[in-house]
Specification:
Blueprint lengths: L3 H7 L4 H9 L1 H5 L2 H12 L5 H4 L3 H17 L7 H16 L4 H22 L3 H31 L6 H45 L3 H29 L7 H20 L5 H25 L1
The structure holds protoporphyrin IX containing FE.
Protoporphyrin IX containing FE binds next to helix 5, helix 6, helix 7 and helix 8.
Length: 296
């Protein structure tokens, strides 16, 4: 699958689309049950449907999954967890050898079904056009991910066994997502510790050592800013955006600036050390600027 960010940008999926889809949630909630029923009414005519939806238990499970999938279209959350779920759905269909054509045809029904609701519910013509465009985008993105599962399966080279490899890939994905959550927790903890450092540095001001207190406090505030940047980057990453490498440079930059602030207070610091720190800031600054230009 393309990266989440590429997928969204290739379909021109913007924040406005997110808002448009989210605004439909209350209306669409009222149609959840009817949607599932009509969806089933539509796919029951495909000649091989009973081969895939073979008993009451599978049908009930699928109906529940379809209802949830329908509501998620309007959740307003289209980050990493959303796309992970879409990949899972795509793989579920591939695993049972469901023809890709069935999914495409079913998606065509979904498009028409939502179109009919929008025509009934939205009176303003201009608004109707915009909302329909957002719905088209999210449905096309869904179909894109589902289709990719079929293509990836065709391209896949089996090394040991398909079952083992599917399990391993799924496990690796879940594990990497879990690690991201651990990283997030670590950053929250770090934020709390830096706030403690900030309070400690502030005590120097009240101890009478105003210069040391102010400079050290400034240093810890800079660190707090870096932790916020790191957290923000990680949240954006979990939402599906590209990881901003420049944040790592800013961490190093802030660490060196803090060191300069502290060493300026010490009379024992050699001038050579000060110069090398300033040089390091200059190099990191240029790197930061270059990476920002590339990333932007
Ligand atoms: C827009 C089209 C479709 C969507 C959005 C969709 C959605 C889903 C979802 C959300 C799942 C559950 C995946 C999981 O949790 O593992 C699923 C599984 C499945 N789907 Fe679909 N589906 C579509 C079309 C179809 C069609 C046309 C058929 C059959 C004619 C079908 C048959 C199945 C079956 C048999 C499963 C596995 C059920 C199980 O044993 O758990 N799907 N689908």
């Amino acid at each position: 699958m393309e990266s989440i960010e590429n997928l969204k940008s290739h379909y021109g999926f913007t924040q406005q689309d997110v808002e448009n889809l989210k605004s439909l949630l209350p209306v669409m909630s009222g149609y959840r049950q009817a949607f599932v029923e009509e969806f089933y009414d539509y796919i029951k005519d495909f000649e091989n449907t009973p081969r895939f939806l073979k008993d009451e238990q599978v049908i009930r499970k699928h109906q529940d999954a379809i209802g949830k999938w329908f509501m998620e279209l309007f959740s307003g959350e289209y980050g990493y967890p959303y796309f992970r779920e879409l990949e899972r759905v795509g793989m579920a269909h591939v695993k049972i050898n469901l023809p890709a054509h069935y999914v495409n045809a079913a998606m065509h029904f979904v498009k028409c079904y939502i179109d009919d609701i929008l025509n009934r519910e939205i009176k303003d013509d201009q608004e109707l056009v915009h909302i329909k465009r957002s719905v088209d985008k999210i449905l096309d993105i869904n179909l894109d991910v589902f289709t990719c599962s079929y293509i990836e399966e065709e391209k896949r080279v089996i090394f040991i066994s398909q079952k083992v490899e599917t399990y391993l890939v799924g496990f690796a994905r879940r594990f990497s997502y879990g690690l991201n959550l651990v990283l997030m927790l670590g950053l929250v903890l770090l934020g709390v510790l830096v706030m403690g450092l900030f309070a400690y540095d502030l005590t120097h001001v009240f101890d009478g050592d105003i210069e040391k207190g102010l400079l050290a406090t400034l240093g810890s505030l800079l660190m707090l800013w870096v932790v916020i940047e790191l957290m923000d980057t990680e949240v954006q990453h979990l939402k599906g955006k590209k990881f901003a490498i420049k944040v790592f440079i800013s961490v190093a930059l802030v660490a060196v600036i803090r060191k300069i602030l502290i060493t300026t207070l010490s009379t024992e610091t050699a001038i050579g050390q000060q110069v090398s720190l300033v040089f390091a800031v200059a190099v990191l600054g240029v790197l930061y600027w270059l990476i920002s230009r590339v990333e932007d």
